[in-house]
Each structure stands twice: as structure tokens, then as C-alpha cells.
Amino acid sequence: MxxxxxxxxxxxxSAQYNATxxxxxxxxxxxxxxxxxxxxxxxxxxxxxxxxSMTPAVSPGRNGWRVNHSDPVNVPWDxxxxxxxxxxxxxxxxxxxxxAPEVVVKxxxxxxxxxxxxxxxxxxxxxxxxIVPVNIVADIPSSTAMRPPPHMPHWRIDSSQANxxxxxxxPPTAAMITxxxxxxxxxxxxxGGMYNDLNRTYLMGAxxxxxxxxxxxxxxxxSGASGWGGTIRIGYQEAILRMFSNIxxxxxxxxxxxxxxxxxxxxxxxxxxxxxxxxxxxxAAGRLIPAVFAAExxxxxxxxxxxxxxxxxxxxxxxxxxxxxxxAFWGRGYQFGLNHSSYWxxxxxxxLDVNRDTRDPYAKIDGGTVVADGYMANTSTxxxxxxxxxxxxxxxxxxxxxxxxxxxxxxYGRRMYLSGASVANDTCKAWPQGCGGVNCGxxxxxxxxxxxxxxxxxxxxxEATRGDRLGSEGLGAGTQTLYADRASDYVLAALGTYFPCxxxxxxGMVAPPAGICQ
Length: 518
Description:
It contains 14 helices and 14 strands. It has helices at residues 112-115, 181-191, 214-218, 229-244, 249-271, 283-286, 288-298, 301-310, 340-348, 374-392, 394-401, 404-419, 466-470, 489-502, and strands at residues 2-4, 6-9, 19-24, 30-34, 40-43, 49-55, 65-67, 96-98, 103-109, 128-137, 320-322, 328-330, 449-450, 455-456. A hairpin with a 4-residue loop joins strand 13 (449-450) and strand 14 (455-456). The longest helix is centred in the middle third of the chain and has 23 residues, at 249-271. Residues 215-225 have low confidence and may be disordered.
């Protein structure tokens, strides 16, 4: 805790990325300090905190800032990757007075001439090095306080209640990447920053700062800075799995709190009444584990309530469902309405004007005209890893498995690891060979949906089923990854190490709920 009129955010990448804040409280000094997971607080003694200047200063299209995350659509950060949502009108003019419990959120734009960090791939490039939150508080926080989320700045959550004893301490094998303590500290520092995927729009990870992207450190300081959601998700899974290994407690606990801080930010966003657009390239489901982890580790009633109320918002986890026999399958919601003809229409389309990965209305096979392709492939490794992570820490599995909307997600992840894509049990007759349009003859009589029986027309002896046409049985099983940039060597090695023993209880863990292992 300090008293003064200025503080400097020290970048972990380059001094030229430092940020300086100048302010006063009633014309005099302010009391300020830092949260245990990073981020600055300044006490408002009743007259507000008057910000007089900030560096790097706002310049056209760069280094924006705002008070609170009040607008879930338009953003002031950087116009290079705003996808049309950049808005300078939300940037206040300085000097500007901020009152408790508001939050100043300052962006630091990346400068490739300084860092050499690439800008990422296509529309998913990242444009920020850091996001620096500054919470204005009425009361001085404890030394163990977690940073309140920008959407719910009045929350008070403390790390003193953290149950670190629930964390696994698993021995890594020779196949898993080793690391020194310096690297472990660097990983913890990366996760200490605000992740910033707190917008309703299709921004993917574009505003996740490069310097806070897990892969940036894990891949030797140059991740390609891709903001694609599946890549972000895998990076977080890698950090969680490293935290689950038997590393020294001080590094394990620090990383645990930083991962929990991400969960706090996510749950604060949802508790404010907002939600994400149904997109994310795999990261929407990837938000589920950090959110549940935060609620369980910190034993917070506030987080538990937010999680229970908002569990359906982690979009890709809702792509999994169970049939009447309790078998888990994958498939997106219907493109043309909840009817069987729309399903068959999508299945036979030759043009790529629909997602073509609709769930099977008969719950016999995985969805899609090419099983284990497209979104299923994009999310397969991440889903397997999420299921394994939840089972390695039974508190996560118990919480997720108890929720009907998410139980199938874990069951599917385990099934995908054990046997891959599933088409073998199909009995439905396939659409005509070579049919590439929406008006193939014989629908409803020789193939497709039988409106009288309410099920599909079955394949006769020697006739092809849908599964025969799709022909991807078992693809993606085990440590197979269907998208190379949606995986990491460490995560794949962990899958091969822990998944075979997880249902029986790997050394250093408690067995997960029985239902997920059936």
C-alpha cells in the first residue's frame, strides 16, 4: 500500500510497453495498492479519483481506455482488430474523475517494431500487449483480496478462503514436457493479466492481449499471437495441467489464483446480465473450466450463485447431448428449425452455405455430413482435455456433472478419447448416392424420415447407412488431434498419461463421479 499521485504498470515484455497513471484525490495524494492477482486499486475517500494523464496516450486507433465495461458491443481498445466495433466516443477526455466502485480499463496497443510479435492470422489477429484494470474502491482491500471483475466491481472475493488442498499433485511422465521454475513463474505472470474476452460480439480472442496469451510463454515467447478461440482454450488447458502436476506449492497456488481470477472475470460478465455471441472457435466451452474452477477453489457463494444461474452460456459445451440410453453425442442445433426434413436437407447439401454439422435427431451417430470434421474437429482435443481436467479434480466433475446441460459434455469428452467419432451403430438408410441438392427423389418413402413411424427409414440388407457414407468411425480417438493448431504437445502427452487411469483414480487424485465413467 502506498500514498502518492502516480503509479507505473511495469510490462513484463518491454519497458516501452509500461503504462503510467497520474491522479489525485481532492487535489492531494491517494492511497493505492495491488491485488494478490495483479491489478491496481485506488481508494476513493469521498471526492473521487481524478485522473489527469495516462501513458501511452490515446492516439488515433490505439491505446484506448474506458470507465467500466458498460458497453458489451463497442470497444475503444484498438481499431486494427475491432471487426467494425471500434468506438472512440466511450473514451473520456482527461482530466476525468472516477468514483468507487468504478473501474478504469486501459489498453496498451502492441507495436511490432518493438516486440517482433506477429499480429496473428487473418481476422483473428491480436492487437494488444496488455489490458490494465484500475479499480476505484471505497474501502482498502485486504492483502489477499482478488481483483473484482470489471462488470461487477462491487464484488468482494478473497483468496484467504481458497482450498488449495483440492488441487491434484500428479507426477508427470517422461513424455510430458519438463520445465524449470523460471518458466513456471513466467506462466503464472502471463495468467495474471486480465483476459478481456468480455464482449458480446464476434471478436473471438482479438482483444485478448498477446502478453496474456498462455501460448506466448509456453511456445518460447512467440505463439503467433493467434486470437483463434480453440488456440486460447488449449493454452489455458496446458497451464491448468501444469498446475495439476507436482510443482512447488508456491508456484502451484499462484497459478491457481490467476486461473481463478479469469473465472471471476467471466462470471462477473455473466452475472451482469450479459452473454457472449454464439461463436468462439472452441473458447466458449473453454470458459467453463476456469469459471467452475474459480467457484470451487475460492468457495465463494457469490461465484457459486453466478455459475449456477449462467451455466448454459458456455456455448460449445451445449453441442453435446445424451440419448435415452445415456450415450453422449455431438451435434449443433438445427439450422432450419426443429424438424426432421431440415436435418436431411442439411445432410445432402453440396454447397457450403450451412454448417452441415446438425445433430442427429435419432441420436444414433455424431452430427455432420462429414463426422469428425468442421466444428467437431475444431473442438475435439479441447473437449477431451476439458473432460480429463474435470475428472482429475473431482470437485469440477461433480459440479459440471450435476448440471444436466453440461453432463453430456464430460461424457462425450471421455467417449471421444476412448473411441473417437461414432457412426457404427447407425441403422438409418443413407441419402441417394450422388445426391447433391435439396430435392433428391424418394425422400420420406425410400430414405429419410418416416412420418408415420416417427423415425428414420431403416437400411435394408446390403444398403448403405448414413454411417457408411460418413465413414469416420473412431477418428479422433486417444491423442489424435484433428486440428494441429488446436492442440499442444503438453496437452496431448497429458491425455496419453492421465486419461487411461483417470476413472480408476490416477496416483495423486481421487476417483471422479461414477456416472462419467460409465
